[in-house]
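Q: Here's a chain of 252 amino acids. Please give me its 3D structure as tokens.
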Amino acid sequence: MAKTLSIHSFRGGTGKSNISANIATILALEGKRVAVIDTDIQSPGIHVLFGLSEGDMTSALNDYLYGRCEIRQAAYDVTARLDAPIPGAIYLIPSSIRAGDIARVLREGYDVELLTEGFRRITSDLSLDVLMIDTHPGLNEETLLSIALSDSLGIVLRPDQQDFQGTSVTVEVARKLGVPRMTLVLNKVPSTLAVEDLKRHVAETYQCSVAAAIPHSDEMMSLGSGGIFALRYPDDPVTAAFRQIATVLLGT
């Protein structure tokens, strides 16, 4: 049975999309059929990591939500774009980066129930093993829906007081929604911090497991969303952390 995994953060800029893309790729390297859906419709960006340009996107999630196409038509097989031997498959359902489409979402919103139906359809149409949802930061209707439908939820935070406060709210909401599996992901952790002490403190504070602490990486910064880190640096500690997160989210 397919698993639905959501990667979420209370604030933007935590590296949520990068984590989503790398976990999806790691799962595909294990032979799984994975789709990543970008529900951050107000500020989309994960398509960049998979080498998809505006010109490549003849249809997007927005088109499905406004009745202009079926969701299968907005799914792009990006496996070959990664230029690596991947035994599984990766599909991306991007959100539109056209200003008019983003403005319409901000002005009119959309039918959240249609998004739910889209999750179900794409999982069936593509015979998926994993549907990964890259959420919109914060807590709004579509984010709550994504969390509620998830088998596993990864909440990303940086070692930052503002992130700590927002994460507290997110954890409480996720518990009320009854998410079967929830874990925290610390990202961009400076080398000056005692990592194990930090993980212990965060786990105790939220009464929630910490899947991994991803170290700050100059290589990640240099890559600048120009590709999938796990493929470029397979032996890096950051990639090891991505693998650990994938294992925890799948419960394997």
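Q: Can you summarize the key feature?
A: The mean pLDDT is 92.
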